[in-house]
Amino acid sequence: MTWAYVWAMIAWVLIPGVKRGRKLIVSAILILGILPDADLLLGSLGVVHRTFMHSFFFWIIIFLPLFIIFRLKSIPYFVAVVQHFAFGDLLMGRGVMIFWPFNSSLVGFNIGMPSLIDVAFEVAGLLLALGIIVYCGDLKRLFSIDKSNIFMLLPLLALLASALFFASHWSSVNLFASYLLSSNLLTALAIGHLILFTFLAVSTLQGLRALRTKKTHQNSVSSRHV
């Protein structure tokens, strides 16, 4: 998720001739960053993980209407999706069908997860994302009482779903916790995900507070007119 934000912001800055007045939709960037892994939930339908949903050409077709309607403004959101497999899975995973349907070969460097390089990239992504989000003023906006922050619930649920998916492969919570704490690398990854979870949860709560404040205000106004 954090690398999705980093690469989307880099793409946004590099796009020529685009007005910078409007902010990128952070919740959309974050959810798009893990969207290719939705194939994990489609196994019962015969969809194999890291196949066509991890292909450049699949997402080019999906984004084609957005390219036509929004033109350059849609590029950061496209980058948020493809960085997932073009950067993450290609380096760390066992291979992805990045050129499907023209080539069904699995391409990847297979560095391994978790590994020192993997954790280093995860930590670097988190730190870069935090730096950019503060520099661009998004941190203040996402921590403010604003009803638009309710959409941060989507990446929050996605993060929880992915955690539950992998945790479900263990026979017990205690076994999972013991394994997690058995390695400094795994512990570092857990801390990074906890920081991300906290960020998403606080932003979501601020969105809920805004909705509650608005409802309270409307009830107050209504009572005055009675």
Tell me what you see in this structure:
The structure is a single chain. The protein has nine helices and no strands. The protein is an all-alpha fold and 226 residues long. It has one domain (2-15, 23-219). Helix 2 runs parallel beside helix 7 (153-167), helix 3 (56-70) packs antiparallel against helix 4 (75-92) and helix 7 runs antiparallel to helix 9. It starts with a helix and ends with a helix.
Largest sheet: none
Mean pLDDT: 83
Please trace the helix and strand order, writing H or E for each element: HHHHHHHHH
Residue stretches low in confidence (pLDDT < 50, at least 5 long) are 171-176
Distance between the termini: 49 Å
Residues in helix, %: 55-70%
The geometry reads as globular
Give the number of domains: 1
Category by helix and strand content: mainly alpha
* Total E-strand runs: 0
DSSP helix count?
9
Determine Rg (CA atoms, Å): 20 Å
The share of residues in extended strands comes to: under 5%
